[in-house]
Amino acid sequence: MSDKKDLNIAFAAGLLSPLLVGALIVAMTPLIILRAWVLTVIWGWYAVPIYGVAPLSLVLVFGALVAMNIVLARSGKPKGEGFWRGVMEHAVTSLLGLVVAWMGSFFV
Fold first, then answer.
1. Is 8 inside a domain boundary?
2. b/e for 10-26, b at 16 or more Cβ within 10 A?
3. pLDDT 10s digits, 45-72
4. Is the whole-model pTM more than 0.85?
5. 9, 25, 73, 87: which has the fewest Cβ within 10 Å?
6. Cβ neighbours, 10 Å, residue 43
7. Angle CA(10)–CA(11)–CA(14) in degrees, nearest 5?
8. pLDDT tens digit string along 5-35?
9. How many domains does the chain have?
10. What's the Cα-to-Cα distance from 50 to each of 44, 47, 61, 93, 102, rounded to whole Å?
């Protein structure tokens, strides 16, 4: 009887993990798009006028951020850090970075 219960739990976990991965991708995509947008705006404020380089497209920066997230992914998260707390931290730090860069753009 115990073997059948263990088999059911393992089967359910096997079905849930693709769903969890899909939910994680859906939840993280807006954050990566937000960060990509912030980087393209900051690039346009600083690199384009100072160095005369071409502006970056949102798609190019999005792809670079996805690649960096894959390469630099953390193997574990610190204890006590919830998923939504991490989401909010990423969003707030991106927007604060944009505000600081905007204020600095007046001195360029």
1. no
2. eeeeeeeeeeeeeeeee
3. 999 999 999 999 999 999 998 888 888 8
4. no
5. 73
6. 16
7. 85
8. 554 555 555 656 777 677 777 878 888 899 9
9. 1
10. 10, 5, 20, 25, 15
